[in-house]
Fold this protein.
Amino acid sequence: MSDILRVAVVGHTNTGKTSLLRTLARDVGFGEVSDSAGTTRHVEGLRLMADGVPAVELFDTPGMEDAIALLEFIDGLVAPGERIDGPERVARFLASAAAGARFEQEAKVLRQMLASDAALYVVDARDPVLPKHRDELELLAACARPLLPVLNFVAAPSARVADWRTALARLGLHAVVSFDTVAPPLDGERELFDTLATLIHAHRGLLQGLIDARAREADARREAARRLVAELLLELAALRDRIEESADSARDGLLQDAVARLREDVRRREQACVDALLRLYRFRPDDARMDALPLTDGRWEDDLFNPETLRQMGVRLGTGAAAGAAAGVGVDLMVGGITLGAAAALGAIAGGLWQTFGHYGERIAAKLRGHRELTVDDAILRLVALRQRELLAALEGRGHAAMTPIEVGGGSAGGAGGAGAGDSRLPMPEMADPATRQWRSGALPAALARARAHPEWARDEGDDDKDAAVAELAGALG
């Protein structure tokens, strides 16, 4: 037995063979994916590693275009009364001139079949079952290799999953896997390799090692992703911008400048986190233009500091808190401390955005003499956490063959419909998972409160306390 399992990926044209390999390899750049037929014209291979050791070689093959005519041609190569088995019939075809001419693409597929230990037969489940598919399967079966049908695009409303399973069973193919390459099930990869192992028992140990290794990789990737988001939230909570005392005429200008700086810093840090998450999950930078989280020219399109954005994400705000959140910052006194939201609740601030800063009133203005520090409002921390949780859920449920940008319903992380459902309706609070409800309106994790007292954490200065806070906050992200 070879130390590596060789698997051909075969099927009719434009069924998603290259898409399957992209998703299994987590490589958006493998091969060429297109809606046009016959995109793959040559055999291409890739390796799946288990703990740094090659475990499985997958070979992308051209689509079979004319199986009906090829089957008739092969039958014509057998003399009357001559009895030869399937592999010999295939070999006779491959030695003919037609294998390099009329049936060149099919010949490439069958050669790879004979050189492999098993094959995955990829089906576009949206297609009706036709005679050409039955002839393709007869040709592939003639190669005498274990064959596992993989139903692709099963999430489409037009998918004919039951029809395909019935048709395949009639051909003796009872082991069938549903694996949507655009939105693969979370445990779909394990099921695919586990089912394949039942067909080639001699390689079960090798495939089980691959399954276990990739499960560990997925766990490590999720943990790394949560830590990236936790570091972002801690750094935002630690952010502060001190404003020196000045004359009344200059004070408002300094305050507005400081708020603008803080806002831009928040946006920049959140974008850097998104970029890091996309790299971690091996997606392209433009794969995160979302319904609720759209990117335009590399920037979030929705205003992070817009109260309507907060509302859409399910962050519940009172009148006073909404005024502070509109500015996106809190104003902390050196002693005591008061936030814009709290000041608004006292009736000292009216309006939102820049109007908020123009109506302090003398009572509050008198309290703000001396040094002032701007910090990121709790409502903004909630919003960033919810947005990032949505992004994580979408990345977990996205296949590397997906051609359209990620679509996440507003506030749907952990709610009804799941990641990537594309439903922009905000799920009702009772439909959201406990972690989402907590981030929307519950008490914020204590780690964020501690970060308020550590402005050095915003400068990416690590220590044991910050590492412990990151680990604590990563757990709270769910």
